[in-house]
Amino acid sequence: MTVTIDLRLSETEEVDLKKILREEKNWPKGFASYAAAATEEYARMFLGQKIFTRGSDIREYRLFLLIRTAFKNEIPDEQDVCALFQCTVSQSRALLRAVTSKYQYELSKEISTSLKKILEGATKIEGRDAWLIRARSENAVAELNKILARQPGQDEIARQTGKLGTYEVKSAARQFLLEQLPDSTK
Predict the structure, then answer these.
(1) What does 34-81 look like in DSSP terms, one character per residue?
(2) What 3-state DSSP class applies to 28?
(3) d(Cα 71, Cα 33) in Å, to the nearest integer?
(4) I need a labelling partner for 20 at 20 to 30 A (CA). Which of 57, 124, 170, 179 fits?
(5) Edge-to-edge strands of the sheet including 130-134?
(6) What φ, ψ does residue 2 adopt, rounded to 5°?
(7) How confident is the model at residue 169 (pLDDT cuts 50, 70, 90)?
(8) Using alpha carbons only, what angle is made at residue 167 by residues 162 and 171, rounded to the nearest 5 degrees?
(9) Helical spans, DSSP H, in the chain
C-alpha cells in the first residue's frame, strides 16, 4: 500500500532533521524509510498485533522497525541511535543490546551482516599476526567477543590503547569469526 503524507515543518526544523538523519543529499526521499517504520508501527498497533504497555518496549520495537527500514537491514551504531532517540551513549547501548537480544531471531541476518561487514573491513597489521578493526559500535565488538567465547582458547578482540573505535583481533580469531557468521547473502 502506498501512503502519501504532508508533514508541516519549519525551515529550521527541516534543516535540523536533515542533519540528524544525515539525509541532506537525498531529501525528502531519504526520510521515507523513517516514515515507513512509523507507519508500520501504527498499523501493527491498530491491528492489535503490537500493543505495548511499557515505554521501553515501544522504543525497542521502534528501533527494530528502523533497522528493517531506515538502516537498510544493518545494525546501527550507538551514535546513530543517540541522534534518533535523543538519549545518551550508554542509553543507546542498552537499547541496542535489548533489541538485538529480544529480536535476535528476527534480526539474525541483520546482525550477521553487520558483524561480517566489520570483519571484512579490517586491515592486516603489517609484520604481525593481527588485524585492525574500526568499529563505531561497542555492542558489535562485544557480540564478536561473545562468539569467540564459544571456542575456548581464542584471543578476544582488544581495544587499541588511546584510539577510539579501534580494535585489534588475531588472525586466527578473525578467521574463526568469519567462519561462524552465516553468509548473509543467502
Answers:
(1) HHHHHHHHHHHHHTTSS--SSHHHHHHHHHHHHHHTTTTTSPPPHHHH
(2) coil
(3) 8
(4) 57
(5) 123-124, 130-134, 166-170, 158-159
(6) -100, 135
(7) very high
(8) 140
(9) 11-21, 32-46, 55-68, 78-85, 89-102, 108-120, 138-149, 171-180
pLDDT score for 186: 45
Q: Are residues 89 and 164 in the same domain?
A: no
* Residue with cell string 528501533: 63
Q: For 19-50, what is each residue's pLDDT tens digit?
A: 898 888 888 888 988 999 999 999 999 999 98
Do 52 and 82 sit in the same domain of this protein?
yes
Same domain, 89 and 173: no
d(CA 8, CA 11) in angstroms, rounded, equals: 10
Q: Note down the domain range covering 168.
A: 111-180
Query: Is the CB of residue 118 less than 8 Å from the CB of residue 135?
Result: yes
35 lies in some domain: yes
Euclidean distance between CA atoms 12 and 186, whole angstroms: 43
- 122-167 pLDDT, tens digit each: 999 999 999 999 998 889 999 999 999 988 888 899 998 888 889 9
Q: In angstroms, rounded to a whole number, what is the distance separating the alpha carbons of residues 62 and 80?
A: 14
Q: Which of 104, 111, 135 minimizes the C-alpha distance to 121?
A: 135
**Angle at which helices 138-149 and 108-120 cross, to 10°:** 100
pTM: 0.83
